[in-house]
Amino acid sequence: MSQTSVCIISSQSPYRGQGAREALDAALVSASYDLPTSLVLMGDGVYQLLDHQAPDQLPRKNLLAMFKSLELYGIDTVYVDSESLAERGLESEQLLPVYTLLEGDGVATFLATQAKVLNF
Amino acid sequence: MSQTSVCIISSQSPYRGQGAREALDAALVSASYDLPTSLVLMGDGVYQLLDHQAPDQLPRKNLLAMFKSLELYGIDTVYVDSESLAERGLESEQLLPVYTLLEGDGVATFLATQAKVLNF
Amino acid sequence: MNYALAVYGATGNSQAGQTALSFAKAVLASGHSISRIFFYQDGVQNASSLSNPPQDEVNLPSEWQALVQQHGIDAVVCIAAALRRGIVDAGEAERYQLPANNLAEGFELSGLGQLLESLIETDRLITFGA
Amino acid sequence: MNYALAVYGATGNSQAGQTALSFAKAVLASGHSISRIFFYQDGVQNASSLSNPPQDEVNLPSEWQALVQQHGIDAVVCIAAALRRGIVDAGEAERYQLPANNLAEGFELSGLGQLLESLIETDRLITFGA
Amino acid sequence: MATLHTVNKNGQPLELCLRVVNKGDSLLLIEDGVYALFEVPDILAELIKDVSLYVLEADVLARGVSNRNELEIELVDYQGFVSLTETNEKTLSWF
Amino acid sequence: MATLHTVNKNGQPLELCLRVVNKGDSLLLIEDGVYALFEVPDILAELIKDVSLYVLEADVLARGVSNRNELEIELVDYQGFVSLTETNEKTLSWF
Known about the structure:
The complex is a heterohexamer, with two copies of chain A (about 120 residues), two copies of chain C (about 130 residues) and two copies of chain E (about 100 residues). Chain A is α/β, with parallel strands linked by helices.
C-alpha cells in the first residue's frame, strides 16, 4: 500500500459494547501496515482515555493498557477534542497523557486535511 | 394466568432496528392471553404513531397497520406522553387517532399504579 | 423471592449480557431463586454455540450455560427473535431446511408467552436492555 | 469510480444493513464498480446462513449473497469480530472445535487489513454505522 | 408502589426516567449511565431531594468515574442491586 | 477537500457532525437522522447558510416525516446519495 495517511475517529464509550475496542484494533492494523495513522477521540470516545479505569471489575479487557502501548505500535498521534472534554466537565489532567488537545475548530481543521478517514 | 394487568412501555423509533416491532409483539401476546394490556408510547416511541408512514420504501413491515388492528387483538388502551410530542414539535393531529394523550405527570401517575410493567 | 430476568442485548453493542450475568449470580448468592431467564431482541445472541471470543474476553454463552445448568434455571430464547437473527435449534433448522443449528445446549427456543408468564407469576422480573 | 462499503450493523438494532444494500444497488446502477464490501462489528450478522426472518421481512444475508455473486464483489467478514459474535466458517469451526458453521456462501472471513486496503486503494469507501 | 429505576445511559433513557420517577422511588445508574456523575451533576443534585440515588460500583470503577461533586450517592455492588430490587415492588429499566 | 457527511440519528452523531462540518461541505440525513426535521429545525435553518443539506427520500417517506418548516433541503434517492459521494472527495459517517 502507498504511504497515504489514515485517520481513525473513535466516538464510542469504552465498555458499552465492542465499538471502542474494535476502532482501536483498526488503528493498530493500520499502523502495522506502516501507514501513518492518527486517532481522534471525540464525544463519548474521550472516556476511553480516562485515568484509573478498572475494567477487570466487569470483567473486560483494559483499553487504557492498549493506549499505553500505542507508541510501540507506531501510532504517535492521538488527538482529543477539547470541547468534548468540556461538555463532560473533564479536565485534561484526568486523562492518560498520551494525546494532543485540539481546541476550538481544531478537529474540523485537521479532518479537512485528511483524505482517508474511518469513523467508529 | 391471573387477571393482573400488564403495561408495555415502548420508547424506540419504528424502523431503526426491530425494537419497536418486538415491543408491539409483546403487547399482542399479552392481550392474546386475555391479560388487560396497555401500551405507553414515550420518547422516540411516539414516532410509531405518526400518520402517513410508507415503510415499503425501505422495505419494512408497516407498524402503523399493526396499530390499526390493536383493538381487534384486545388492546384498547394506547397512551401517548404529551411532553414527548411537544419536544418533537408534533401536534396530536399528526398521529393515528387510536390513543389517549397523557398530559403533565400523567405517565408518572399511571405507571405508579401498574404492578407489572415491561420496558422496551 | 422468585426472580425472572429478561435480557435484550449481547456482547457486540451492549453490556446487557454481562450485567445480567453478574446480577443473576448475586440473586442466587442472596438466597433467592431464578425460575427463568428470557433472551429477547439482540439478547438471543447470548445463546449461540458458535461464539468464540479471544482468550482474554468472557464467553457469555458458556457462562450462561454453566449457570443455568448448575441451578436448574429455565433458559428460554424467543423463537421469533432468534430466527430473525440466525439462532436456531436442530428442530427449526430441519423445518426451514437451514444448513446447521447453533443454539447452545441448556437453552430452549419458545414463544414470547414465556416472558409474559414470568412477568405475571414471579415476584420480580428484572430487564436488562441493550 | 471504484467503491468499497463498510457495514457495521445488522437487522436487530440497526438499519445499516438495509441502507447499505440499497446504496450498493444504486452504486452499481450508476455504472460504478464495487470491489469489496467489508462487514465489521455487528455487521458480521449480515453473513449468517441461519437467519430466517418471517416471509414479510427481508432476508439480508440472502440479498447480499445474490448481489455479490452476480457482480463478483468481494464480501469480506472481519474474522475477529465474527468469532466474537458466533459467525464461523468450516475452517474456523474445525480449528476451534465448534459444533457447526454458519458463514453463508459467497462471504469469506479475513482480517481487518482488508478494510484498510480498501480505504487506501479504492476511490470511495462509504461506511454504514449501526 | 415504590419503584426502582435503572438507567444504563444518558440521553433519552435518563430523560424518560426523570419524567416518571416519583417521590420515594430509587434510581440506580448502571453501565454508561454512571457517566451522569460527570455530565449532569446538577440534575442529580436536584433529584436527590426526592429520590434515593445509587450507582453500580463495578461500572463506576471500570470506567474510572468519580463522584467529583460529592453528591449523596450510594455505591452498591451487585448484591446491593439485588437488595434494591427486593425492597422496591417493581423495577423499571430505562435503556 | 469537500466532504459529504451522513448522519443516521440525532444526539451525539448530529452534534459531532456539526462540530466538524466546514463551509462548502454537504450533509445528508439518513435513517433516524431525518427526524432532525422535527426536532432541531432551527439548527438546520442556521446550517443551510454554509452547508448543502439533503435528506434521503426513502427514510423520510418511510417514517412519515415532513419538511414542516419549509427548509431549503433537497430530497435525494439512493442514486442521489451515490452522486453526492462522487462529487465529494470523501464521506464521513456519523452514527
